[in-house]
Amino acid sequence: MGNAGKLRRRGVGLVALVLLAFSAAPAAATERTYKLRAAPMSFGAYETKFPTRAMPTPGRAGFIVRMSTRLVDARGRPISIRRLMLHHVVFINSGPGAQPRNNSCPGRNGEPFFGTGEEQQRLILPPGYGYPVREHDRWRTVAMYMSHSNRPVTASLEYSVTISDAPGLVPVKPLWLRASGCDPLSSYTVPGGGAPGSADVRSHDWTIPTSGRIVAAGAHLHGGALSLDVTQPRCDDRTLLDQRPLWGMPDDLVYRVRPMLHEPGPIATSYFLSPTGIPVRRGEVLRVTASYDAELPHPRVMAITHVYIAKDADAPRGCEPLPADGQTLWSRTDGRATVAPMQVPLTRLDAAGNPIEIPFAGGPLVEAGANASVDVEHAAFEPSNLTIPSGGRVTWRFRDRDMHDVLSANAPRAVDGPMARRGGRYSQTFTVPGTYNLFCDLHPMTMHQTITVRP
Q: How confident is the model at residue 12 (pLDDT cuts 50, 70, 90)?
């Protein structure tokens, strides 16, 4: 009889037996933890990078039951976020070549199976469950790193992977579900301008590809996040997962790191764990809904839940009560439930090479009409200090070989231009008067611009 049949026949009783057997078995006989390290990467002072890289794998077939990451130096010592931050990373399994893994979104190569970031979340599965891997699987990561150091930094992404080959483990299917749907970008922008206390709410309905039970789920959120929920429309849209952010206390390091290159995110998000699991059926819809503060702009936020479904073809079709053994885990607990959203100051280097905050970009003020052009070349915005009338349109023309973008640091409304190099263009119309402080996200200490929109 297969795992699914056992689950059907014995239900929660089987889960208890699996837990008992798992805890009684000697861990050394069935589990092994691998510490893997990616090739070192070098970062210039205050540099931001978005690399996609092939990653070493354990080279062993079995089931991943736990996983975590950290940044280390050449001697294996942890690197503080004072020097370098892992803003986010997702591990993607492309399979062993001829048998590729599938993605939550059609047409994308590989299966995202673990993600984390500022919240330092770990992959944890209940005893008796595991994510199946093969000896010749190929892994890659998509990540964002931000240097907070005025000196070059060399670092490696180190990750700990615990693999079990215990008999009878139930395989889980990881789903990477976003409130923004299958947009090519994993992020979206909250424009700002809402009333105090208002929320920007985004939802997407995902069709579940397999019947089973949700036994674990984590989330990745950014600064300004209020909540991330997963609901079940067929059961009166009841809430299955309530994934909340936890914010640092006022003296937390996340708020003291300088320069501030982006709005600080949560120090933790709630992680759901249940040996029994929440039943879901193949073909049904789960709704993922994210709420962000709508008063301030929040460029390029993410609202992602990584859900792990234990496959069970005979999962109940009804709306059973949610499991009594559901737990909420936190990577940290020394925080607070709410925090006031904030914006990012412009920062430049003084004569001694130290970061100092500035109220606006330098350069002579250029008064333009309703259609203004800005050249992005020689790693600068020209003009860097511009005024236009309300309703005016600005077009950025990218002329450098190096990649740049244009992003709002602090402004009444969001500006979020794509990354581009020579030949690229981006335009935006400004209908709200005020001062728009902008920067290049890749070169935040040297590429600044201020656009003043006249009433």
A: very low
Among the ranges given (1-5, 271-275, 352-356), the one the predictor scored with the smallest mean pLDDT: 1-5
Please give the share of the chain, as a percent, with pLDDT higher than 70: 93
User: Residue 67: its pLDDT value, please?
Assistant: 98
Bridge partner list, 387: 367, 452
- The angle formed by the CA atoms of residues 441, 257 and 305, to the nearest 5 degrees, is 65
pLDDT digits (tens, 9 = 90+) for 305-330: 999 999 999 999 999 999 999 999 99
**Local confidence band at 97 (pLDDT 50, 70, 90 cut-offs):** low
What is the rounded distance in angstroms from the CA atom of residue 385 to the CA atom of residue 390? 16
